[in-house]
Design brief:
Blueprint: H1 2-15, E1 36-38, H2 40-48, H3 52-63, E2 69-75, E3 79-84, H4 86-98, E4 112-116, H5 128-146, E5 150-157, H6 162-173, H7 179-188, H8 194-206, H9 210-234, E6 240-243, H10 251-259, E7 265-267, E8 270-273, E9 283-286, H11 294-308, E10 314-320, H12 324-337, H13 339-343, E11 345-350, E12 353-355, H14 370-387, H15 393-410, E13 418-420, H16 422-426, H17 433-452, H18 467-473, H19 475-485, H20 488-508, H21 518-539
Parallel strand pairs: 4-5, 4-10, 5-6, 10-11, 12-13
Antiparallel strand pairs: 1-3, 2-3, 7-8, 8-9
Helix pairs in contact: 1-3, 2-3, 4-18, 4-21, 5-19, 6-7, 6-8, 10-11, 14-15, 17-20, 17-21, 18-20, 19-20, 20-21
Length: 547
């Protein structure tokens, strides 16, 4: 409907003398103002040689009847509001219930997109920043998939570097420590044992010590296995794993090649990219010892991405916003080194997580890791899960915890810091992941009861569209807009509106009342259930059938 209305307006503008117009439609904040609205008349009044209100009146007259639109109104100084006909809403209910394509759009059909996210480092803890990158990256990947693209998921991990040497040294001193704890121990004692740890770092790179090699391989393997267990809980499965110790080691070759071509420069024995020339800052790509920095390794990674998947249309990298300046320099260097790769690469930044309670307690020490946050919220949700009708209360508690965490992360716009409030995150009263899950489970419960009573859902195409149905109709547009902007929070906002509208309707309407309207009401419930399920999937949040 949106495309149909926009095209009708564009043709109407041409007939009143405005060519090449861009018509933008949006959903009014209040349903009483229609299902679509446009300020096109305000935008093009000057070009049409008239005032906005007069142009709006001309456009409405020129547009004429539009199939699926019941009425058109002019509001204020020249806004045009469109109210859809019953048939449009009936079609939305049917598609939501019966079509796997519900919510999908074709804006990225035929495209292939790589999304790199999470990026934890073996030998270190899976910290909250990795949890945030995973939640955002997975949702971005699914939004892109819902837009028709083939998505390739990638994970870039630092399996070499000073942190590895610190962890190995720590493990050598305290074998009982986990690798994350061994890294912390090595960091705390680095200054006192700098020479020994630096030697280990060199040995990790050149593989000259069998004992160090054995410890390294063991730590790398155990770390990666541990990360996989966390990914399983979070619902993520990667297609490619890239490593600093493999793809990253191609970076120095690239830097040296383009040092000779004048892209990089020598400075005090190091190799730098002179970012000041381009309004950025200078960064080191090779140290004075000839070792690659993260910047050089990033060049090796991004070349490898397009070697692995040569027909990529876009590469998206999700990291914390504190790396934004870093990526500006790296991307500028890439413009000279691999211009086609740079042109297709986008950096999506997210903020930091802070806690409303101050420091949250953790059974694993002072640092709140991503893993311990999942464990803490799973434990907090267990009592509620045991009171439910769920066949697997433990699994439900974990699903609630994942929903609580991911929702708190995804409800914020890109780059904004997140204040994590544990009580609000687990609440069933609104503005939370469990609230969305509960609305879905409630709808699923109604459908289950209807099946047990032998009542079948059947749409009445002549029924008046309720506010709930009109809100449900907006789901595909909300999803498409979130995908276009790479902003999951735009979908979160819509799903909360839908869940709230459903719960209000549910409280006011007796659904299985034995009346002739019951099958139609049941069809609405089924459409809401399917829409919430698809919306939650797109956010990477489980959708339990019972809560």
């Amino acid at each position: 409907m949106k495309a149909t209305i926009a095209e009708a307006l564009r043709r109407a503008l041409e007939r009143v003398g405005v060519s090449d117009a861009v018509v933008e439609l949006e959903h009014p904040a209040e349903l009483k103002n229609g299902d679509y609205a446009t300020g096109t008349a305000l935008r093009y009044a000057k070009a049409a040689g008239t005032n906005p209100r007069a142009l709006a009146e001309k456009l409405v007259a020129e547009v004429g009847p539009i199939e699926g639109v019941e009425k058109v109104e002019i509001a204020g100084p020249g806004f045009i509001n469109f109210f859809l006909a019953k048939a449009a809403f009936a079609k939305a209910i049917d598609r939501a219930r019966e079509s796997e394509a519900w919510g999908k759009n074709a804006s990225l059909d035929g495209k292939k997109v790589m999304v790199e996210y999470t990026d934890p480092n073996p030998f270190k803890e899976f910290h909250i920043g990795h949890l945030m990158s995973n939640a955002i990256g997975e949702s971005v990947a699914r939004l892109i998939e819902m837009s028709g693209a083939r998505v390739v998921r990638a994970n870039w991990q630092g399996d070499v570097g000073q942190h590895v040497a610190k962890a190995i040294w720590g493990k050598m001193q305290q074998p009982e420590l986990s690798w994350g704890a061994a890294y912390t121990y090595g960091s705390e004692h680095y200054e006192a044992h700098k020479e020994a740890i630096d030697t280990i770092n060199k040995q990790v790179y050149d593989h000259t010590d069998p004992a160090i090699n054995e410890l390294y391989e063991r730590g790398r393997r155990e770390s990666l296995e541990h990360f996989e267990a966390i990914y399983k809980i979070l619902g993520t499965k990667f297609d490619f794993y890239f490593f600093e110790g493999i793809e990253g080691m191609e970076g120095p070759k690239i830097v040296r090649e383009f040092l000779e071509k004048g892209v990089f420069a020598e400075s005090d024995g190091a190799v730098i990219f002179p970012g000041e020339k381009y309004g950025l800052h200078t960064r080191v790509f090779l140290t004075s010892k000839g070792l690659p920095t993260y910047e050089a390794k990033e060049l090796g990674l991004n070349r490898a991405k397009f070697e692995k998947v040569p027909d990529l249309n876009e590469s998206i990298i999700v990291t914390a916003s504190e790396q934004s300046d870093y990526f500006k320099v790296v991307l500028k260097a890439m413009e000279f080194v691999m211009p086609k790769v740079a042109e297709k690469t986008t950096h999506v930044a997210h903020g930091m997580m802070r806690f409303a309670e101050g420091k949250m307690s953790s059974r694993k020490g002072n640092v709140i890791t991503g893993e311990s946050l999942i464990e803490d919220l799973t434990e907090a949700a267990q009592a509620r899960a045991r009171e439910s009708r769920a066949a697997d209360p433990e699994g439900l508690a974990q699903s609630i915890a994942v929903a609580a965490i991911k929702y708190q992360i995804l409800k914020q716009g890109a780059g904004k810091d997140i204040i994590f409030d544990r009580e609000r995150a687990l609440s069933l009263e609104g503005d939370s992941g469990p609230y969305l899950q509960y609305a879905h489970a409630r709808a699923a419960g109604v459908m289950e009861r209807a099946r047990s009573e032998g009542i079948e859902a059947k749409l009445d195409p002549n029924a008046e569209a309720t506010d709930l149905v009109r809100t449900l109709h907006r789901f595909p547009d909300a999803l498409a807009y979130a995908a276009e902007k790479l902003e999951p929070h735009l979908l979160v906002n819509h799903l909360i509106e839908l869940a709230s509208a459903f719960n209000s309707w549910y409280a006011q309407v007796h659904i299985l009342d034995g009346s002739s309207e019951a099958p139609h009401k049941l069809a609405i419930v089924d459409a809401v259930r399917a829409t919430l399920e698809k919306g939650l999937w797109t956010l990477g949040i489980p959708a339990p059938q019972q809560m």
